[in-house]
Amino acid sequence: MDISRKSKPTASQIIFITLFLLYMIIPIIATYVFSIATRWDRSILPEGYTLQGYRDAMKNPYFLITLKNSLVLSFGSVLVSLLLIVPTVYWVHLKVRLAKPLLDILMILPFGIPGVVLALALVQVYNFAPLNRSPVLLTSAMVVFTMPFMYRSVSNNLEAIDIPTLTEAAQSLGANTIDILVKVIIPNILPGILSGSLLVFATVFAEFTLARLIVGAGFKTFPMLLVEYTRKDGTIAAGLSVISFTIAWIVSLLILWVGGKGMKTSQDVIKAH
Amino acid sequence: MRRSISQKNRRAAWLGLLPFLLFCLAFEIVPILLLIRDSVFSKAGTLTMSNYKQVLAPLYLKSFWNSIRLSGITALIGTVAGLFIGYSIYRWPSQRIRNLLITLSDVTTNFAGAPLAFAFIIILGSNGLVTQFFLKSLGLKIYPAFSIYSFSGLILAYVYFQLPLMVLLIIPAFGGIKKEWRESATNLGADTSAFWWHIGLPILAPSLIAGFVLLFANAFGAYATAYTLTGSRLSLVTLQIGFTITGEVLHDPGIGQAMAILSLIIMGTSIGIYRLAIIRAERWNRH
User: Fold this and answer.
1) Residues sharing a CB contact under 8 Å with residue A139, sequence separation 6 or more, in sequence order
2) Distance (Å, rounded) from C-alpha B71 to C-alpha B257?
3) What is the pTM of this model?
4) Tell me, what's the pLDDT at B246?
5) Surface of A (47-106) touching B: CB under 8 A
6) Domains of chain B with CATH codes
7) Best of B8, B21, B24, B248 to disrupt the A interface by mutation (most A CBs within 10 Å)?
8) ipTM of the complex, rounded to two decimals
């Protein structure tokens, strides 16, 4: 660390961090408490607590349908992303390093394309059955949208291990390409694959724009149900928000956990050389 | 002979990228290119700028003005506040607290869209907790001067995901300010403000510019938060493009296409500046 740190934080540091924490945490805590409050508009603290909001939310037939749709969409996107990106990144690292700049540009593109623009472009091109307004088209859009997350996680992990040496060692022992990929490379880049998958999963699960604009009411997702309830019933909307927040927290913590382990494995690999 | 074989192999190796490249072409590149083509051709097939001329109508011009203003203001607030908060985190004595605050930023910058918008309705809606607290405890009526469903409310909700993003971007940049430089500056008689003005800020400048344009693009492309909070009360570029798809507000699809291409240009320029600024910023961190 280059700037020296004192043993105690200064007053201005404490003020900045406190304000930051209040801003970041109050909306989340308020949502959690609101979702279990009976009435909370006359007093500082709620007048009572109840789980009725959650019971009402689960009674809605759309609750399970949208949850299922969102899970199918998220797992589907992760699967397509894995099948498409992981072999490609491996191939680029091993065989066609010249293609890396091309891949880098392709991975920046999604950052420059707003969700609404991608949705408009896809809806206008794929305006014929069976692709039009279909979950398949939506999955493709989600894969494009989340491509950089998978690419960066896997690519960083691949950079940290010595692929040519591992591949040559496996080849000299008589392994074929598929064997090398499944038995040697994948176990070594598992942390990158896992954190990429978790990032894709969390993003797709929370994604609203593409889902609403590409498919709409025909394939209602969990965030779409939530937006619907923000206009109908506050307590239920709060319950659904809590579920979204909680999933986001869990996935973030899992990524941190996997990432920490990933660091360790790649260090171990370097040490092993 | 050998060379031609390896060349052949190399060419064959490119084939391995085919599935991925085809996917990108089919679901990203070609649809965007067709969108550009459609935006400049009339239904009769002649080249025309009429779609772009129609965007000059007050309603659409206003949505660009609103989007640019919202993105600019929230990017500026995020950049300045993120700089101070990032520095406070960077210099916090306890490593554990530092990591905790960075993790919090990492998680909260992804809290966007509908759940975040609704969280702000809970605290700052017309019956919100903070609204009621101000009214009952302090006698302060924040409505209708402020409304979470309006421009001012959107600023507050957008800064929520802009600020932690800037914190994450700027913290590594402080590592570029070497302790020795600070010492030399002090030895040469520079006080704290002189040090920051002549050495600290110039070193941070590329990171600050990179942060600002990334935050700008981040806000400009956002849709879900604005849709949940304002519905159709406020005109933003992304909301207008959304209306073209859903057909909620009837307007010529050509206008939606032209708006989409214009926002691609704005986003592309921002991301381009971001890349250039990041390359400059990395020079300070290399050693």
Assistant:
1) A73, A76, A77, A80
2) 21
3) 0.89
4) 87
5) 84-85, 87-88, 91-92, 95-96, 99, 106
6) 52-285 (1.10.3720.10)
7) B24
8) 0.90
